[in-house]
Amino acid sequence: MKKNKFMDIAIDLSDDNFDKKYGGPFGACVVKNGKIIGKGINRVIKDHDPTAHAEMVAIRNACKEMKTHDLSGCELYTSCYPCPMCLSAIIWANIKTVYYGNTKEDANDIGFRDDFIYEYIDKLAVGDKNDSVLKLSSMNREAAIKVFEQYKNDKDKIIY
Amino acid sequence: MKKNKFMDIAIDLSDDNFDKKYGGPFGACVVKNGKIIGKGINRVIKDHDPTAHAEMVAIRNACKEMKTHDLSGCELYTSCYPCPMCLSAIIWANIKTVYYGNTKEDANDIGFRDDFIYEYIDKLAVGDKNDSVLKLSSMNREAAIKVFEQYKNDKDKIIY
């Protein structure tokens, strides 16, 4: 069995949250230069926050700690394969290395919709919109695009 | 031009944020029964939070207001097509109707990576892992799965 102290901590966090019931049994931590800079547990129920997955909370805590939105050079350890929300947040945060314990099939097996959301996104890519999951409609791009045009011409912008 | 007061507000929020520069020029609002219950602008730079996209902030504010993680029956208006993080958060929150202004190609055109992340996820689905974007490695599932087994047998769990 491959052992790692940071993965042990992520799994311990998931186990603690099974007892606390702040949300699903998930834990994660962000590591920089061999030190934990942010921990997270799933807080969806406790915080009334559907975005408060363990990885999201760990990323937000690490960013708060480091006073940056950019976690380049950091690694993330999570007790379960990230859902598409968390996976995207990891990429937005410029984290390039992730270690996970359970698989997304394991998450599906205990009742979570990770796999279902991946499938929805994958079908979107080939133009197969499942409106019963989510109905996405375009509206008034003519007005919205004006702000983007201003932004495009702005020389002081910070791209992240 | 299709007009709608909630889309106007989402676009106005994106325009305000172009001036404020709290993050990218994006705005969103969550609507329930014809009333706004949560607004959001992109706060990535200001809050040091890579997860603080307009839709995420609007969802978190709406959930705080309603004291629930479940936004069933709500609609979301956003000045730009949601990135995969926001799209997944919308599904986790049980929102089933989304109206967007700008497209993800428009976002790409002003320098954001929405399209790039969609592409990464789409390739993952067919087993094409791009390790230069993100290296995902399995580690110690044998330990992680024990927590899931406990959870599976727990009769008091709340599934979201």
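Chain A touches chain B through 95 residues (CB under 8 Å).
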